[in-house]
Design a protein that fits this description.
Serine Threonine Protein Phosphatase 5, Tetratricopeptide repeat; 10 strands; Immunoglobulin-like; 327 residues; four-stranded antiparallel β-sheet; alpha+beta
């Protein structure tokens, strides 16, 4: 007996519907099986939560946070997420704490957990006021500019608006096109907002086309090397000391020659003459050493004179010597 076409079409629709719903049903069952923790996992979660409560009472927030995150990986509840936020807030991780409290509020509303709803609302409002903000302003931008805070990029749409950060030291880096990066540090404190501004570096100074005065030009071209007055005095002292040393050395030589003649005529040499020669030699050596020190002092004063524009200097030029500066 032939099968009616309507019955055949209905059978095909049922087969196709079953083929479509079967995989969805399998996925649903598998997800429920994964989401439902075993009794052993629940026992572990209870033990971890009990230990975390003791750590919180003792102020060991880092230890408590690790255990609570382990509990949430097994079974997340509004209360567990609330305790996670409490630990993060006490560790100074305010942004993470705000996210945890908001997550706890969402779970509590879905599960109608009234005690958590009553607790988490005030904590969220308090954190929103406590979290410090940083406003980064950039001026003189021609093209795109790159802004990073603690090596994390900041979207250009957020520039000029307060952005929440955890309290503490933060590093802001701004990169203008074709320029070296600008880096600044800023310290953020609870309940406060800070603003930091960056401006694009200006162009290099351009030489002026203003005519130069002939007098000023002649001064610039005619002036010779400028040496500080103190350096000139040092060099002059070195010359005087050198001359004195030479005279002392010459006197010692004359006394030594006379002593040789006297020793040749006498039966014994006079020891006083030898002592006199030694004294003049020592005097010559001392004067030459002092002269060397004076030369070195003059050289040092000349090298460092460029760092002090107010130091008195002596300029040597073809028309003479000019002393200028403050004494």
């Amino acid at each position: 007996m032939p099968v009616p076409l309507s019955a055949l079409a209905e059978a095909c629709r049922r087969v196709l519907l079953g083929a479509f719903l079967a995989p969805s049903f399998v996925v649903l069952l598998s997800s429920l099986a994964v989401a439902a923790p075993t009794s052993a996992e629940l026992d572990t979660a209870r033990k971890l939560f009990a230990e975390a409560e003791k750590d919180q009472d003792a102020g060991r927030w880092d230890f408590a946070l690790r255990k609570l995150l382990g509990v949430a990986s097994i079974k997340e509840t509004p209360g567990v997420r609330f305790h996670i936020g409490n630990c993060q807030e006490n560790l100074g991780r305010l942004l993470e704490a705000l996210d945890s409290f908001q997550r706890a509020q969402s779970l509590a509303e879905d599960q109608r957990t009234k005690d958590v709803i009553a607790l988490v609302g005030p904590r969220i409002e308090h954190l929103r006021k406590r979290i410090p903000t940083l406003t980064v302003r950039v001026t003189g931008v021609q093209g795109e500019v790159s802004v990073q805070v603690d090596d994390k990029p900041i979207d250009s749409t957020l520039l000029g608006t307060p952005i929440g950060f955890d309290p503490g030291e933060h590093v802001v880096l701004v990169q203008f096109p074709g320029e070296a990066p600008l880096r600044r540090s800023v310290a953020l404190a609870d309940f406060r907002g800070e603003t930091i501004e960056f401006s694009r570096p200006g162009p290099s100074p351009i030489a002026s086309n203003r005519p130069v005065s002939p007098v000023a030009e002649s001064r610039d071209t005619a002036s010779g090397p400028s040496i500080p007055t103190a350096a000139w005095l040092s060099f002059g002292g070195a010359v005087a000391l050198g001359v004195g040393g030479w005279l002392s050395y010459r006197k010692a030589g004359q006394i030594a020659d006379d002593s040789l003649d006297a020793c040749a005529r006498a039966l014994a040499c006079d020891p006083e003459r030898a002592d006199t020669v030694r004294r003049y030699d020592a005097l010559a050596l001392g004067l030459w050493s002092a002269g060397a020190v004076a030369v070195g002092t003059g050289v040092v004063l000349t090298l460092v004179s460029s760092r002090s524009a107010s130091a008195p200097k002596v300029s040597v030029h073809p028309s003479g010597v000019t002393v200028h500066g403050a004494f």
